[in-house]
Design a protein that fits this description.
- The structure is a homodimer.
- By secondary structure, chain A is an alpha/beta fold.
- Helix content of chain A is about 40%, strand content about 20%.
- In chain A, the strands form 3 sheets. A 5-stranded parallel sheet of chain A has the order 2-1-3-4-5, sandwiched between helices. Chain A has a 4-stranded antiparallel sheet with strand order 6-7-8-9, covered by helices on one side.
- In chain A, helix 6 packs across helix 7 and helix 6 packs across helix 8.
- The longest helix of chain A has 15 residues.
- The radius of gyration of chain A is 20 Å and the shape is elongated.
- The two termini of chain A are about 30 Å apart.
- The interface between A and B is medium-sized, with 26 and 23 residues.
- The structure holds a DNA duplex.
Chain lengths: ~220, ~220
DNA sequence: GAGCCGTGTCACGGTCCTGTAACACTGGAC
DNA sequence: GTCCAGTGTTACAGGACCGTGACACGGCTC
């Protein structure tokens, strides 16, 4: 997650809230600094101020869209202008969404979730194979070393999600959002129990150690 | 791929990204120009702006659907309106999907891929043979181990569909769409009852266990 | 009209799943 | 070593989910 915003107060406000929501955040106060960062690692999403010193935000967005490496980045505009015209121009530069100041942290994270969900994390019907496990969403079958595994609906969804994002650590809130849906209202410890049930099922073929606990953070599905 | 959009900026944004995704793209700024192009070559898919000058986009879509030559084109609507009502009308005019501005290039290509992939193979008249069962669509006869089975119309269509996609799990909504037709308005539990009737009929030759219940998901036709 | 067949819906009961609380345990800070 | 937050484990009540039988309705034949 990259936040590009010249106003320090707003930049920190956004960053703090994103971190709290479980995202890794980098900040930049100008388009130039943002470019430097982007030359290193690519984020999943860019929160971009409409009004940037020197170079306007939408010009920067067009630039991102014009380069192959950054073409597919999700972009959310933050703007103080509410006029329709500005929104339209924002759309023309290929933003995924926009926020009008003032906005609440809740709205920010909600929109980010919406944008991210709209695009990537849609679990597909493709077969996932990792570490001796094979999960087939279309037939809803899971095999560990050719032996079939019996999973409940929730266990299956969780394993599907984890296997689709190996090595990556998810906290309990994120798992609730991804596996149960983000409108649910459940205890975080519920995740623990389902992790256990999933591990139990996987242990039938000796694959129970594929799900790793990251103390203080959450869980991770290991490669091999 | 044909892009029909009157706003030059958005049109180019879409076209550039589609070309980058590997599609051949033609552009039109109005419905009239689009018709001229369609008189020449037929694309696989049309990206159509909801608001077109002169003729509304959905009117154009209806026109496409009404002509045999363009009836089967996939259509994706692009609209700035987010209201549910508009979405509904968009789908009623036969759109395969719609995009709400703002959207990102990645989202656009993802949806296009989804629509193209969704064009599932229709049920053919070929004889289907699986697990001792033989279903002949042309004669509308089903035999289990050479013994004839007596099925009602709905049971037959459902068995035909399930046997044509063995191992794959379908939920009740999908089965309603595939067996009854896209836009029926029936209780999902109705599927259960017909599954039962089908199982009863199949049990006459001992093949009732071929239809498997996948709890929390739907039903599956087992191989062998 | 009566009778039959195919169909959609409902209600009941059993089974399995699931969320939660309570308790046991672990790892790390000090 | 002690202590504590964080996690593993277990048990259980409630509920979701599905199979099943019954019933009403419409179309059809006679």
């Amino acid at each position: 997650m990259l936040v590009v915003e010249d106003e320090p107060a707003i930049r920190e406000l956004i960053a703090v809230n994103l971190r709290h929501a479980g995202y890794a955040v980098a900040c930049a106060h100008s388009a130039e600094e943002a470019e430097t960062i982007l030359n290193g690692a690519l984020p999943d999403l860019v929160v971009l101020d409409w009004m940037l010193p020197g170079q306007a935000g939408d010009a920067f967005a067009r630039k991102l869209r014009s380069q192959p490496r950054t073409r597919d980045l999700s972009i959310i505009f933050v703007t103080a202008r509410v006029e329709e015209r500005d929104k339209l121009v924002g759309l023309e530069s290929g933003a995924d969404d926009y926020l009008t100041k003032p906005f609440s942290p809740k709205e920010l994270t909600a929109r980010i979730k919406a944008v991210l969900r709209r695009r990537a994390p849609q679990l597909t019907d493709d077969v996932v194979r990792i570490g001796g496990l094979e999960l087939n969403p279309a037939t809803r079958r899971v095999t560990g070393d050719r032996k079939p595994l019996d999973l409940g609906p929730t266990e299956f969804r969780m394993l599907h999600f984890l296997m689709s994002h190996p090595e990556r650590v998810y906290n309990r809130t994120q798992l609730l959002d991804e596996v149960w849906g983000d409108h649910v209202f459940l205890e975080e410890r519920t995740v623990d129990v389902h992790i256990r049930r999933l591990r139990m099922a996987l242990s039938a073929t000796g694959h129970d150690e594929l799900i790793e606990t990251v103390r203080g953070t959450g869980y991770r599905f290991r490669r091999g």
